[in-house]
Amino acid sequence: MSTLGIYIHVPFCGKKCAYCDFYSVNWTKSQAEEYVGAVLRNIRHYGDCGAKVDTVYFGGGTPSLLSSLQLESIMTEIGRCFSLDSDAEITLEANPCTLTVDKLKELRSAGINRLSIGVQSMIDDELKTLGRVHSAVRAEQAVTDAADAGFENISCDLMIALPDQKKESLQYSAERLTALPVQHISAYILKTESGTPFDCEEIRLRLPDEDAAAELYLEMVKLLEERGFMQYEVSNFAKRGYESRHNSRYWKCSDYLGIGPAAHSCYKGKRFAVERDVADFIASEFQNITVTDESPCGFEEFAMLRLRLKEGLRLSDVSEHRSDIEKKMPSLIKDGYAETDGERIWLTAKGFLMSNSVIEYLIF
Asked: What is the pLDDT of residues 66-83, one digit of tens each?
């Protein structure tokens, strides 16, 4: 029986970070209440009691700005309208400043069993540059409080190639973060997104150049794997058994349903996206969507997504294109971008650095 993941986009932030271009608006109590009501309407609209939901992901924005009661009401509606697996992975993205001891206990009671905490760095100067409102000490406290509250599946975000960042500061953040009771780390190279405050000459002049960013990435992979966090995707590392089940849906072309402004879906044979407008989402009986792909997960997309994973692409899954791929493999392997066991091809850490170019060469 196929399973379904549900993604809930929570578009509220207390303060937008200087580098972020995700859709979000300032949190207000009244709008948050109206938003939750709209989420519940849409869950009922899509409801399918025959669909087995085994992952739920609250992303944002800052989903931890919602109250535990609001989150519980959403989870209750999902359980009523779908077949919610008793072992479902239920993830909530959270800002460290929103996680009090009491809130963490309430989140556990509401059904949340996995936290993704936006730490980004364990150095206060770097956090200030990023526009984060928490300190390294506050992030550390949030993680230890979460573990004390009973969370056994905690992920933290780590950003690299930050303004003025050196290998020593990355090592410090990685060592301090991996010493905490976390099981998963999502580590991203900072990108200056158009239209954000970081999209300016002052920041660009402080960013590591391409070669320095590559060195930082490879150093990060080495540091994390030495501490038991094995790379399983371009930007994701986990202790054995703690890979993100929900995010793995995206890379394996499994079905997921997105609810909320700016949410994306791959559901019932189509990809579609919701309008980036929380007021429209609240006012509409059902969310307004735009179909972005009438027939997703063809060869090119399937292969591209599989090659983002450390397990790589099984050649028997693309038998019609196998001979073309095998002709291109030797040069990639010789240059250290890929490896093979004859049945699969996967990218190395060096290959992941150049993943767009490597994948384009291999499959197009």
From this structure: 999 999 999 999 999 999
215 vs 305: CA distance, rounded Å: 24
Q: Which two tokens stand for residue 105?
A: 């206990």
For residue 313, give the nearest of 324, 326, 304 by alpha carbon: 304
d(CA 220, CA 217): 5
Q: Do residues 311 and 344 touch, judged by C-beta distance below 8 A?
A: yes
Contacts 24+ apart (CB under 8 A), 272-277: 274/9, 276/23
288 found inside a domain:
no
Residue 54: count other Cβ atoms within 10 Å of its Cβ: 20
Nearest to 183 by CA among 208, 205, 152, 221: 152
DSSP for 134-146 reads S-HHHHHHHHHHH
**Domain range for residue 323?**
299-363
47 falls in which pLDDT band (50, 70, 90)? very high
- Report yes or no: 194 and 333 within 8 Å, Cβ to Cβ: no
Question: What is the residue whose two structure tokens read 């054995």?
Answer: 240
Task: Provide the whole-model pTM.
Answer: 0.96
Q: In angstroms, rounded to a whole number, what is the distance separating the alpha carbons of residues 35 and 55?
A: 21
Collapsed DSSP state (helix, strand, coil) of residue 214: helix
Same domain as 304, residue 202:
no
43 and 133 assigned to the same domain: yes
283 part of a folded domain: no
